[in-house]
Each structure stands twice: as C-alpha cells, then as structure tokens.
Specification:
With about 400 residues, the protein is mainly α. Helix content is about 70%, strand content about 0%. The longest helix has 21 residues. It is elongated, with a radius of gyration of 32 Å. The chain starts with 8 loop residues before the first helix and ends in a 5-residue tail after the last helix.
C-alpha cells in the first residue's frame, strides 16, 4: 500500500487565479478627462472678444480661425447661451439647430452653436447627439484653435467611453497630428483605447510616452501601463511600476493586491506572500478571493503550511471563506504538512462528505492508519468505498488490517 496519504500535493491545493484589480480604468479616465475638457471649453467660449486668449496650440498645422459672430446672429447666439446656462437642454438644442440651418450663418456661428449643443446633449445624457454635434463643430471649421482642438479631444473621450475604440484612436491620432500638441492626456487616452482592444504592445508604448511627457504622471495611467506590461510578459517592468505605485500608496489595498499579483506572475511567491501578509496584518483582507490568494501562496511555499492553516482558520472565523470542500481540503493539507495531525483529521472529516467521490475519505483513512488508529481508519476506508473510488485497492487493504 502506498504509504503517502496524498495522491499529489499540488492537486490538493486549491487552484487560485490571480487577477489584477484595475477596474474600469478606461471609462473612469475618459469621464474625468472629458469633464476637464468641458470645463476648459466653457471657460474659453465665454471670454469676451477683447480679452487676450492664451493660445494653447502654437504648433498646430491648422490655421487659427479668427472668425467672429455677426451682428445679425448676435441675439440668437445670446439666447442659445442663456438657454444652455439655464439647463434647458431641449430648448438649447432647438436654438442651436436654428443657427446651424440659418442661410447667412458663418462657419464660426455654426461651429459654436454645434459646440454648445454638444454640451447640452451631454448634460441631458444623450451621448450620441453630443458626439454628432462635436463632429459638426469640427466640420464647420470655424472655431479658434483652442475650442476646435478641445472639441476634438472631447469627441475622442466620448468615443472611448462609448467603446467606439477604433474611432477614438483615429480621433486621438488626428488630434496629435493636427494640433501639434504633446498633451500626455491624449496619448494616455489612446493607450486606454488600445488596451481595451487588446493591442497591448501599442497600448504600452502610448502610455509610456504619456508618462514621459507628463511632469507628474497620474496613478491610473501607471496602473494601466502596468497591466499592459503584464499582458505582454514584461513582468520586470510591470513589477517595477507596481512597486512604485504601492510605495506611494501603502494604505491603498488595490495597489498592494496588484503588486502581489504581479509578483506571483513574475514567479516571486515569497514577495507576493509578504505583500499579502502586510495587507492581512492591516485588517484589509475581506473577501474569499483575497484569503484564497494568500493561503494558496503559502501552500506553494516550502515550510509555510502552518501560516496557510492560520490564514484559512481566520478566513473561516470571519466568514470570508466558505465552509466548502476546497476550503476544508486546503486546511487539511496545510495542517498535515505542518505536522498538526489532529486538526488535519478534523478538516478531513469535514471535507469528506463534501467530496464528489471517496478520495478524501481515503486520505483520511491513510492518515488515521499512520497514526495507528486502526478502527477509525477502517471506518473511513468503508466510507470511501461507499462513496466510490476509481482504485479501491488501498481502501480494501486498510479494511483487511488486523485490529479494530
């Protein structure tokens, strides 16, 4: 009879999938960036003609439009602006359509009407109309460069949010080419769209350029670049970034868990366990996946089975871990390999009835036999046979042992 009570140690360990916790970065980034662009556009569109405007796009290939509103459409434009500021979205859009359709409206008047209608539509949560108006504003080609290129950037951001990734990438490329801007935000947004399309090497390049062009790169850009590196197998680069992010936010649970996940993907289980243990010590482990990630990491480290058992017991006590087959089997394994035999037997007794077949009861029988508890070993062997075994030979040998 095989003296080992386990078929294969790795088989008994719970299979834990490591998932980076980046969340919906693309949507959050697009939303925040779009709102910033919207605020900039509103501020710029309200400036008086005689005010000095700072030209943001000095390197643009587009000639800066100097067109202004004519006296004949001053009243309709003022009405449009007032309706928008009062939050009357439908009325503002109707007023904008009248100006756009006016036979004597110039390119500026049509473009500014479309731009205001875009904002009114966005505020009314009509994103399709907002994007259509932004496209019109660009096509009329009557805005000054600041408003023209801000509208282009906002269009790309909205396309990204609406998961129109190909269109968003084209818009961001056009923005960079025509504006002559080295705005890192546009590069980061393009990287976001590329990542969403699983074009990870291109996403990493765009995000890296964004970070290099920014005096203070944003954390969400760094996290997305880290994810792109991880997807392309550049684990050393991913780990470097993860360490940088985690060091800046030692109390941020997501950053710490991401670092642990990167360490695991980089075949650095000791480092992963250390990070996860710090999170546990801070009382931040809360759900099943987090506890499973830590105890599975310990089980795959030599001599760390006692720590694994401690984590499992804590997870069970807190209700974070379910009292199911995988949990009790992992607990039995952790206790057995750390020479805590009685707790191992108790865990096997709980896992056995939850198993699909009799293999767990057979492992229990083997442990009991090794402890010279022959009567209990025979009872467990019979339970294994009753539940079903592919190879019943070991169970029958235990049943045939002398003694009770």
């Amino acid at each position: 009879m095989n003296a080992s009570p386990f078929r294969n140690r790795s088989i008994l360990a719970a299979a834990i999938g490591v998932v980076l916790m980046f969340g919906l970065v693309s949507q959050a980034t697009a939303q925040a960036a779009r709102e910033r662009a919207e605020r900039r556009e509103r501020s710029e569109s309200r400036q008086q003609d005689d005010q000095e405007v700072v030209e943001k796009y000095a390197n643009a290939t587009r000639e800066n439009s100097k067109q202004q509103a004519s006296s004949r459409l001053a009243k309709p434009l003022n009405k449009l602006i007032s309706l928008h500021e009062e939050g009357k979205s439908a009325e503002a859009r109707a007023a904008a359509e009248e100006i756009i359709a006016h036979e004597r409206a110039n390119a500026y008047e049509r473009a500014i009407a479309a731009q205001i209608a875009a904002h009114a539509s966005y505020e009314a949560e009509d994103n399709a109309a907002a994007m259509d108006y932004l496209r019109q504003a660009l096509e009329f080609d009557g805005l000054d460069n600041n408003n023209h290129f801000n509208s282009m950037l906002m269009l790309g951001q909205m396309q990204l949010q609406q998961e129109q990734y190909e269109q968003a990438i084209a818009t961001f490329d056009r923005y960079v080419a025509e504006s002559g801007s080295d705005d890192p935000e546009a590069l980061a947004l393009k990287g976001n769209a590329l990542y969403a399309m699983e074009r990870y090497p291109e996403a990493a390049e765009a995000l890296k350029r964004a970070m290099e062009a920014s005096p203070e790169p944003r954390a969400d850009w760094m996290q997305l670049l880290m994810a792109a590196y991880a997807e392309t197998g550049q684990t050393a680069e991913a780990a470097r970034l993860a360490e940088q992010i985690a060091s800046k936010s030692p109390g941020d649970k997501r950053s710490q868990l991401n670092l642990a996940a990167i360490y695991q993907q980089s075949d650095m289980p000791d480092e992963a366990a250390a990070v996860l243990e710090r999170v546990r010590a801070a009382g931040q482990l809360t759900d099943e996946a987090e506890y499973r990630q830590l105890y599975a990491t310990y089980l795959n480290l030599e001599g760390k089975e006692r720590e694994a058992a401690e984590v499992i017991n804590e997870g069970l006590q807190k209700g974070a871990l379910k009292e199911d087959f995988n949990t009790y089997l992992a607990l039995a394994q952790a206790n057995y390999f750390s020479d805590q035999i009685d707790p191992a037997i108790q865990a096997y007794r709980k896992a056995g009835p939850l198993d699909d077949d009799g293999e767990t009861f057979l492992n229990l029988a083997r442990v009991l036999w090794q402890e010279d508890r022959i009567g209990e070993a025979k009872a467990a062997a019979q339970q294994a046979l009753d539940k079903g075994l592919q190879d019943p030979e070991d169970a029958r040998k235990i049943l045939a042992l002398p003694g009770n």
